[in-house]
Automatic annotation (TrEMBL):
<dbReference type="Pfam" id="PF00005">
    <property type="entry name" value="ABC_tran"/>
</dbReference>
<dbReference type="InterPro" id="IPR003439">
    <property type="entry name" value="ABC_transporter-like_ATP-bd"/>
</dbReference>
<comment type="subunit">
    <text>Homodimer. Forms a membrane-associated complex with FtsX.</text>
</comment>
<dbReference type="GO" id="GO:0005524">
    <property type="term" value="F:ATP binding"/>
</dbReference>
<dbReference type="InterPro" id="IPR027417">
    <property type="entry name" value="P-loop_NTPase"/>
</dbReference>
<keyword id="KW-0067">ATP-binding</keyword>
<comment type="similarity">
    <text>Belongs to the ABC transporter superfamily.</text>
</comment>
<keyword id="KW-0472">Membrane</keyword>
<dbReference type="InterPro" id="IPR017871">
    <property type="entry name" value="ABC_transporter-like_CS"/>
</dbReference>
<feature type="domain" description="ABC transporter">
    <location>
        <begin position="4"/>
        <end position="228"/>
    </location>
</feature>
<dbReference type="GO" id="GO:0051301">
    <property type="term" value="P:cell division"/>
</dbReference>
<dbReference type="InterPro" id="IPR015854">
    <property type="entry name" value="ABC_transpr_LolD-like"/>
</dbReference>
<keyword id="KW-0547">Nucleotide-binding</keyword>
<keyword id="KW-0132">Cell division</keyword>
<protein>
    <recommendedName>
        <fullName>Cell division ATP-binding protein FtsE</fullName>
    </recommendedName>
</protein>
<dbReference type="GO" id="GO:0022857">
    <property type="term" value="F:transmembrane transporter activity"/>
</dbReference>
<dbReference type="InterPro" id="IPR003593">
    <property type="entry name" value="AAA+_ATPase"/>
</dbReference>
């Protein structure tokens, strides 16, 4: 089953800058893949088209067979709740505890308090922060903060998780740790797409890699090809 499909997608910003040109690919349910390419290649733009921060200039984006062009108005918020997003700067609320930050997607969708508490504890355990629930983000290390960002993105059990340079601010050891965390997700039915310009890190993961070059899909490398 396909969770995401890009058909001949192009994106030209109002400035006249073409960020994506005629990009087509498909992501299967449960698949994990990387999007790589130089700065400015179009990685962020591609992810923005998935969580509807931007719209394509031409072409079609299908999410779970739903044409995202038809997702407008209040349905945009509903779509965003189905797609988990991890940012490089994690965008945590600094005046709320770790647990409150992670609970946010559940609170927004009106989940009951008991259920919310249970899920938050479980997901914090999974990312190894079970004992930091009541800390404020500022009291955590960079790697821990990113793990909170991931916990928040997965707490509502999204079918698709997109991450934009999630290890951009982390040293190699922490980066590998965070990637290991992402790697454990597809088994739970979540597809994962990670944008990263860190080619050596991407290669070590031995997953499918989409290579963007000046907005064009220059390569779509399978894990088998990567090994060869
Ligand atoms: P990457 O994530 O690979 O660094 P981006 O998707 O951020 O690439 O950017 C692709 C191209 O689009 C770049 O040339 C960038 O300057 C341009 N771009 C990105 N966002 C905007 C925007 N909001 N308005 C105009 N140009 C943009
Ligand atoms: P991020 O993806 O980190 O949230 P942005 O989306 O703001 O950052 O920017 C992504 C890239 O696009 C950056 O390289 C930025 O310089 C470029 N960019 C963003 N907005 C514009 C714009 N209005 N015009 C040109 N380039 C832009």
């Amino acid at each position: 089953m396909s969770i995401l499909r890009f058909d001949n997608v192009s994106k030209r910003y109002a400035s006249g800058r073409t960020a994506l040109s005629d990009v087509s690919f498909e992501v299967r349910a449960g698949e994990m893949l990387f999007i790589t390419g130089h700065s400015g290649a179009g990685k962020s733009t591609l992810l923005k088209l998935i969580h509807l921060s931007e719209r394509p200039s031409s072409g079609v984006v299908l999410y779970a067979d739903r044409n995202l062009a038809k997702v407008r108005g209040p349905r945009v918020a509903l779509h965003r709740r189905e797609v988990g997003v991890v940012f490089q700067d994690h965008r945590l609320l600094t005046d709320r505890t770790v647990a409150d930050n992670v609970a946010l997607p559940l609170v927004l969708r009106g989940e009951r308090r008991g259920e919310t508490g249970k899920r938050v504890r479980s997901v914090l355990d999974r990312v190894g922060l079970g004992d930091r629930a009541n800390a404020l983000p500022g009291q955590l290390s960079a790697g821990e903060q990113q793990r909170v960002g991931i916990a928040r993105a997965i707490v509502a059990e999204p079918r698709l998780l997109v991450a934009d340079e999630p290890t951009g601010n982390l040293d190699p050891t922490l980066s590998a740790e965070i990637m290991g965390l992402f790697e454990s997700l597809p088994g739970r039915g979540t597809s994962v797409m990670i944008a990263s310009h860190d080619l050596s890190l991407v290669k070590r993961m031995k997953k499918r890699v989409l290579v963007l070059d000046h907005g064009r899909l220059a390569d779509d490398i399978s894990p088998e090809d990567l090994a060869a």
